[in-house]
Amino acid sequence: MIELKNAGFNYGGRDILSDMTLRLSPGSFHFLTGPSGSGKTTLLNLCYQALMPTTGMVRIFEQDVRAMTRDDVARVRRRIGVVHQNCQFLDHISVRDNLTLPLAVSGRETEVDQGNVDDLLGWVGLSERGDALPAELSGGERQRAALARAIIMSPDLIIADEPTGNVDWEMAQRLIALLVELNRMGKTILIATHDLNLIRNTKSEVSARVLRINNAKLQLAGADL
Ligand SMILES: Nc1ncnc2c1ncn2[C@@H]1O[C@H](COP(=O)(O)OP(=O)(O)OP(=O)(O)O)[C@@H](O)[C@H]1O
């Protein structure tokens, strides 16, 4: 699904990621951890073609990112749902309209089925909040709305960058439970988090691999987690 081979990335000559080799197979569940500034967001960006590797190879759904046309990029992006670290929304439209925005942007507004949107809002526990404006949501509600927006296009792969960043432990567990449920439905999941307790807790629920970025290199974390 996603493959990196000796991939690296630098900003202005400074190596952020170096010699990274990784394969995400369909249906897998991965955590990505590492200290603040270690490059987690940068690596996620490589995985959905928001950044190009400066060295090595990245393949997304079997396609080399360097050989992708604009149409290819649009096609692969439709198969990936991203929950961004800062959960930005359009503030002047409702939560419900924010959720359906990805469909409208990709010319699929005819596929908007308000019944499905209601189901999705219910699934993330926001049934009563669909008509609210984003600014009226709490931190945890925003995170759940961001997850709902990421999955409205039925992506095969869900990439979440610190999806539990601004919420308490109970809400963090609820959010991760939703991602575990999506994984059980067959979705591939990649989550960046610095919260090792959350990772330990989730590993009892799902068979997850834990990757760690250390000094720009990718390692598989084991019992030392
Ligand atoms: N646009 C940019 N230009 C230059 N340097 C950048 C840019 N974006 C990020 N960096 C640097 O790249 C490094 C990795 O950043 P990144 O956001 O990937 O780390 P992170 O592990 O996700 O951090 P955090 O856990 O704090 O979100 C940091 O040193 C950061 O300062």
UniProtKB/TrEMBL annotation:
| Gene3D superfamilies assigned to the protein according to its UniProt record, in alphabetical order | P-loop containing nucleotide triphosphate hydrolases
Concerning InterPro entries, the annotation shows: AAA+_ATPase, ABC_transporter-like_ATP-bd, ABC_transporter-like_CS, ABC_transpr_LolD-like, P-loop_NTPase
Tell me which domain of life the UniProt entry assigns to the organism this sequence originates from.
Bacteria
Q: Which Pfam families match?
A: ABC_tran
According to its UniProt entry, the protein's GO biological process terms are:
cell division
Annotated ABC transporter domain ranges read: 2-225
Q: Which species is listed as the source?
A: Neptunicoccus cionae
Q: Identify this protein by name.
A: Cell division protein FtsE
Question: What would be one Gene Ontology cellular-component term for the protein?
Answer: plasma membrane
Molecular functions (GO terms)? ATP binding; ATP hydrolysis activity; transmembrane transporter activity
Please state the span of the N-terminal signal peptide per the UniProt entry.
none
